[in-house]
Amino acid sequence: MAKIPHRVILTEDQMPKQWYNLRADMKEQPDPLLNPGTMKPVRTEELYPIFCEELAQQEMDSTTRYFDIPEPVLDIYKMYRPSPLCRAYHLEKYLDTPAHIYYKFEGSNTSGSHKLNSAVAQAYYAKKQGLTSLTTETGAGQWGTALSEACSYFGLDLDVFMVKGSYNQKPYRKAVMQTFGANVVASPSDTTKVGRAILETNPDTSGSLGCAISEAIEKATTTPNCRYVLGSVLNQVLLHQSIIGLESKIAMEMIGEYPDIIIGCAGGGSNLGGLIAPFMQDKLTGKANPHFIAVEPASCPSLTRGRYAYDFCDTGRVTPLAKMYTLGCGFIPSPNHAGGLRYHGMSPILSKLYHDGYLDEARSAEQTKVFDAAVLFAKLETILPAPESSHAIRCAIDEAIRCRESGEQKTILFGLTGTGYFDMTAYQSYHDHTMNDYIPTDEELEKGFASLPQVEG
Ligand SMILES: *Cc1c(COP(=O)(O)O)cnc(C)c1O
50 pLDDT band (50/70/90 cuts)? Predict the structure, then answer.
């Protein structure tokens, strides 16, 4: 048999023309979003003041299995997609494992991550509706960069509330966003009511995604012709990210392999949800039974130590409530270099699949072990991985070592969500041995759980 190439890249014609909505095949649906005022399930129209109408409709649609990707979105996708599916031959050899290791690499666009897949879609629908500006939050900066690119392409103004810790740590992220025309504000800021309130009780806070979301929503709802967009967690974002899994599945079919184990890092769940979507369809419909693993930081362990409960999606408690694995909307994780994985909650779709046993496993990893894997991967595969993505690398290496020990020849697929060029402070602290592996105590987690809203039933 011919040797499988290092990189499989589909042709433009082979690129999927539709997104796949995983909810259409779920046995049971995630619990509905609740209106925080009435505690009743949210109706689609109630989301219109916050989200674009078509995105609100996608958010609430659990029956349409496939959505056509609009032509203008496909046109932009074609500038950086299809993304490569790579075989990690060098890593396999180094580990002396019989496992086949594949990764889907989403870091070859300027945002340096998979986030552009949803940013382009969201900016497109906003433009189509005649809006003139958007607001959003960003943690590590990848989402803010992706949305800045998309907004500049479609001619929309953008305000980005960037978590203060990252803002200070990654000044060049800000410069990239400004290059695309975005206005970047460190959050919490004194430009919003909710930001000022958070600063009053916690003046030295390094911020959190939850705070930044509250500020971005306030700005959107107080600015005419403006809406808020979010880069993860939501059903619509998982829908757009299904392109990752759909491409991966076609590429794996072309080389005649099917993954036994599929691994993704999990912050809000969008890359993992997108990567596993068509493989989860196989599991739900009984066609195949791959083993899915979510990997999260030990410092922000929503799946492994969180509660499955209704919670706000933001710290300011203004969003609808979602039933999800959460550490509590008041939880602020200790500073951690994987900024994109510092969210208190988890996608309601993934939460439900995990709760019901379809998402098989969640693991947490400590920072230095994640960076051990990142550095090894960089040396062997010549890609400098993002700290977030390196959580998946850590787990893929652990699984490949397990195969070496058991002699099993498994096929492993993981999501390499992005590159780490703006994370050199993190790499530097790893090299200097100043990186800490802080894990929150049960008492600290209790404080977060105490912030969970009381919801009956
Ligand atoms: C944002 C981000 C993540 C985590 O977000 P998810 O929604 O969980 O996918 C992972 N990797 C990179 C590179 C990111 O930018």
Answer: confident
Q: Round to whole Å and give the CA distance between 135 and 247.
A: 30
In the chain, the percentage of residues whose pLDDT exceeds 70 is 99
The answer to whether the CB of 226 falls within 8 A of the CB of 131 is yes
Half-sphere exposure for 150 (CA within 13 Å, toward CB): 33
Taking the C-alpha atoms of residue 292 and residue 301, their distance in angstroms, rounded to an integer, is 17
Q: Would you say residue 337 has pLDDT above 90?
A: no
Torsional sign, CA 304, 305, 310, 316: negative
Q: Exposure pattern of 277-309 as b/e (b: 16+ CB <10 Å)?
A: bbbbbbbeeeeeebbbbbbbbbbbbbbbbbbbb
Q: How far is the CA of 31 from the centre of ligand 1 (A)?
A: 24
Helix (H) or strand (E) holding 7: strand 7-8
Each residue's pLDDT tens digit, 66-94: 999 999 999 999 999 999 999 999 999 99
- Smallest CA separation from ligand 1 atom 4, residue: 267
In which residue are the tokens 């000022």 written? 196
Both structure tokens of 138:
């960003």
**For ligand 1, mutation pick of 137, 265, 391 (most atoms within 8 Å of CB):** 265
pTM value is 0.96
Write out pLDDT tens, residues 276-322: 999 999 999 999 999 999 999 999 999 999 999 999 998 888 889 99
Cα 123 to middle of ligand 1, angstroms = 19
Ligand 1 binding pocket mutation candidate from 417, 421, 423 (most atoms within 8 A of CB): 417
Which pLDDT does position 99 carry in this prediction? 98
Contacts of 145 (CB under 8 A, 6+ apart): 110, 111, 112, 115, 138, 173, 176, 177, 180
pLDDT (0 to 100) of residue 276: 98
pLDDT of 78: 97
Beta bridge partners of 66: 20
Q: Is the CB of 173 under 6 A from ligand 1?
A: no
Nearest CA to ligand 1 atom 1: 340
385 CB less than 6 Å from ligand 1? no
